[in-house]
Design goal:
Length: 358
């Protein structure tokens, strides 16, 4: 009956860490708090999150690296980026922490930010978040609305720059185009943003009814809905996610025992989480190269020589590197697609003479 894949978006298909951090634009939410911030740091918060670290002064580089490379795994929904930006700034700049203007700013939030480490955020974000939400007198729905509004305004004013702050992982765009499986996007991102990136950046059109975004309910609920649809009966079910906590929530539901669960190790998760996942029998730890080349029936396989003997070469260096890694690791699977199946968007094959065979 075929395969059904429910795919997370951020951290599985698309690396949107830079976009999420930029869109957060905490300055929009707390303008008085950031009035006294150094202009360089202000630029970083608003629209320079994607700038090369070498262009940032050292303290700002540390904050930026923490947000992009280390604490991003705690973010489940985009609005949390606003909280992280402010929390990291306050943890680095005591003067900002002391001048916080919220109605409870002189209370425990100073204690939370003071001496805060990356490890503290990773281990205790679920406890820290409600504390700072209360101390800053914030409302989840209001932050979600603001987060979406910032993105909408950015898209309206400069769509190209917004698109450019994201990137799809190597091989994903064209693989999505040519997949023979039934694909659904299940994400905490607002559907309109996921759809815009798929269309504008990846050149992929997925029907709106197959994109479950923010507001459609928890992912556990979406998976239950998908497996109950008459047209999905008898299909093999796969769920690819980069948040271990989400996969553990699925495991808690006996009703979802029929799903094959995968943790993408290229996404927003930590080494500790990957080690934990490796010891959970229901979860398969997945590398990007496995995802592209070996996921059953999700993505087409490849061949370097067509039936007529014409030799093909990969043009996309990143995808070729992934393939080479699989070869070195002993992957001996079939590379059996006929002809240059990929279009010009991300990966393509060019014909070369037989004497130049790769």
């Amino acid at each position: 009956m075929g395969d059904l894949y429910a795919l997370d978006f951020d951290g599985v298909l698309c690396d949107s860490c830079g976009e999420s951090s930029i869109s957060a634009a905490a300055k929009v939410r707390w303008p008085d708090l950031f009035d006294g911030v150094d202009s360089v740091l202000e630029d970083w918060i608003v629209d320079q999150m994607h700038r090369s670290p070498q262009l940032l002064e050292e303290p700002l580089k540390l904050i930026r690296d923490k947000l992009h490379n280390i604490v991003r795994p705690v973010v489940e929904t985009g609005y949390e980026n606003l909280l992280l930006v402010r929390l990291l700034v306050e943890s680095r700049l005591p003067s900002i922490r002391k001048s916080s203007s919220g109605p409870k700013a002189s209370g425990s939030i100073c204690k939370v930010a003071e001496g805060l480490t990356v490890e503290d955020i990773l281990e205790n974000w679920s406890k820290i978040k409600p504390v700072i939400m209360e101390e800053w007198d914030e409302n989840r729905d209001a932050l979600i609305d603001l987060f979406g509004k910032v993105r909408d305004e950015w898209m309206d004013n400069d769509l190209a720059t917004w698109i450019g702050a994201n990137r799809f992982y190597p091989g994903v765009p064209d693989a999505l185009k040519f997949s023979s499986s039934t694909i659904y996007i299940v994400t905490t991102k607002q559907s309109r943003f996921a759809d815009a990136l798929l269309r504008e950046l990846a050149g992929v059109t997925i029907p709106p009814e197959r994109i479950y975004g923010l507001g459609t309910g928890p992912k556990v609920k979406v998976l239950k809905q998908l497996q109950l649809r008459p047209e999905h009966q008898g299909m093999k079910l796969h769920f690819v996610e980069d948040r271990l906590a989400t996969l553990k929530n699925v495991i808690k539901e006996p009703e979802l025992d029929g799903w094959n669960l995968y943790l993408g190790d290229w996404g927003y998760n930590t080494q500790k989480e990957r080690e934990e996942a490796a010891n959970i029998s229901r979860i398969q730890l997945l590398q990007l190269s496995d995802f592209i080349f070996q996921a059953p029936d999700l993505f087409p396989s490849f061949e370097l020589v067509q039936a007529n003997g014409t030799v093909l070469r990969w043009v996309d260096d990143e995808l070729l590197e992934l393939y080479n890694r699989k070869e070195k690791s002993g992957y001996g699977g079939s590379l059996g697609c006929s002809g240059p199946v990929f279009g010009p968007n991300h990966v393509r094959f060019d014909e070369i003479g037989e004497s130049e065979a790769v």
